[in-house]
Amino acid sequence: MNHKHAQLKHKQFAFKAGAVNEDGTFTGYGSVFGTVDCYNEVVAKGAFAESLQELAASGDPMPALWQHNSDQPIGGYDTLEEDDTGLKVAGFLMINEVAQAREAHALMKRRVVKGLSIGYYVRADSYDEKTRIRTLTKLDLQEISIVTFPANEDALIDTVKQKLASGELPTLPQFEKLLREAGFSSSQAKAIANGGLSKLLRREVGNDEEANTVKRALAALTS
Fold first, then answer.
1. What is this structure's pTM?
2. Which pLDDT score, from 0 to 100, does residue 9 have?
3. How far apart are CA 57 and CA 55, in angstroms?
4. What is the pLDDT of residue 148?
5. Average pLDDT over residues 112-120
6. Residue partners of 116: CB distance under 8 A and separation at least 6
7. What residues have CB less than 8 Å from 197, skipping those under 6 apart?
8. Domain-wise residue ranges, the chain
9. Distance separating alpha carbons of residues 117 and 191, to the nearest angstrom
10. What is the percent of the chain where pLDDT is above 70?
C-alpha cells in the first residue's frame, strides 16, 4: 500500500503481569477489539486479517521497537493472530544481542514498563455521527512497540495538532482535549468544538476577564 500521504498512528495497550519470561519471550495483546479508546475510536474484529496475511506471505517478522523508535528494534514477534479478544501476540526480545532489549526486559519483568502499542495505517473505517465513534475496520499493521504505560495524554495532544496542521479534522472529543490543553475551560472547549469560536465570543461579550482568558488560550493554541 502507498503510504505517501497517510499518517502513521499508534494505539497502546497493557500486557498481562507474568507474561514476560527469563529468556526474553513475552505474550500479550497488541490491540483489543470493541473497546472505545481516548481517541473515540474502536478497532473492529477482523481489522488486521488482510495485513497479517500479507505479513505471513512476506516471511519477514514483525519488528518489536522500543517506544516507537524505528532506529531501536529490540526484537520481533513469532505469533500474530486475531482471536475474540484482539490481536494476540507472542514476541521475543534479543537480550543477548541488543543492549536496549536487555534494559527493556528488566523493566518489563518489574512492570515498570508494561505497554504494547501498535503502529499502523488506516485502510478503511466508518464514523457514527450519533455516537461520534470511529470504527477502524481495516488496518495496515507496521510494528508493535514496547512502551511505557499508561498512555501519555500529551501523545494525544500532539496527534491532534498534527491532524490540524495537515488539514485532517480530529474528532470532537480530541479537539476538546486540545482546547483544554491550550487553557480553555471545559465549557469553553465544548462551545468551540460544538458551535464554533464565534459562539464562544458572543457568549463572552461584556466579560473582560473571560475574554482575556480566551485570548490567552488562543495564543497558546496557535503557538
1. 0.65
2. 80
3. 5
4. 82
5. 87
6. 12, 13, 14, 15, 28, 29, 30, 89, 144, 145, 146, 147
7. none
8. 9-150, 160-222
9. 33
10. 64
